[in-house]
Design brief:
The chain is mainly α. 66% of the residues lie in helices and 0% in strands.
């Protein structure tokens, strides 16, 4: 997994945790950290989480890779 994929996946997880907090406790963690939903920094975080979600769609449709490989049978 590339660095970009790991970064976007981390942002998607952060977004999911934030949505869970909103749904269960009516608490927006991003807004609480950055001073409200309408601050520039919070809007940037929301935007990056949204773009990360779109990018992670590529991971959903990525062909699965083989986890096991054939042993190397060369005798050198």
């Amino acid at each position: 997994m590339s660095t970009l994929q790991r970064f976007t996946l981390a942002l998607v997880i952060i977004g999911a945790i934030n949505w869970g907090l909103i749904g269960f406790f009516q608490f927006d963690l991003v807004a609480a950290i950055f001073g409200g939903q309408n601050t520039a920094l919070a809007r940037i975080v929301y935007g990056l989480v949204g773009l990360s979600g779109l990018y992670c769609l590529t991971l959903l449709f990525k062909p699965t890779e083989e986890l096991s490989r054939e042993p190397d049978r060369s005798t050198t």
